[in-house]
């Protein structure tokens, strides 16, 4: 394999992993585990509007789908960074380790960095836009 082929595969793996993570946090955590109403109550307990929970869920779910498919990966991953900054803010007072009580800040920070890298790399291999003849 050439280095370019490896780079395209690496971008694909990173994009797919990030998309799956966003889907897990939206569908499994916010929708199935805590429910959207419960997530909205949590947002309110932080002093945030309840509607922001629904927007966060939608952004994570739709963004996760777009990343898994390889659709506008640069734009989507950059657009999701504010959600991750919010998660960083929520967990920043809990210390470093995410397994600590209420989670720490290193995982949200890592995801911010990964999102930035996907924004720089683009879709990589196996993207729907590659099939459609467009680049992201």
- Measure the end-to-end span: 23 Å
**Average pLDDT over all residues:** 94
Number of helices: 6
Q: What is the number of E strands?
A: 0
Low-confidence stretches: none
> What is the radius of gyration?
16 Å
Shape: globular
Which structural class fits the helix and strand makeup? mainly alpha
Hey, roughly how much beta strand do the residues contain?
under 5%
Helical residue percent band:
over 70%
Largest β-sheet summary: none
- Oligomeric state of the chains? single chain
Order of H and E elements: HHHHHH
Describe the structure.
The protein is built from 6 helices and no strands. The model has no long low-confidence stretch (mean pLDDT 94). The chain is mostly helical and 136 residues long. It has helices at residues 3-33, 36-45, 50-69, 73-91, 106-121, 128-132. Helix 1 packs across helix 5, helix 2 crosses helix 3 and helix 4 runs antiparallel to helix 5 (106-121). The protein is globular and about 50 Å long.
Task: Give a topology summary.
Elements: H1 3-33, H2 36-45, H3 50-69, H4 73-91, H5 106-121, H6 128-132
Helix pairs in contact: 1-3, 1-5, 2-3, 3-4, 4-5
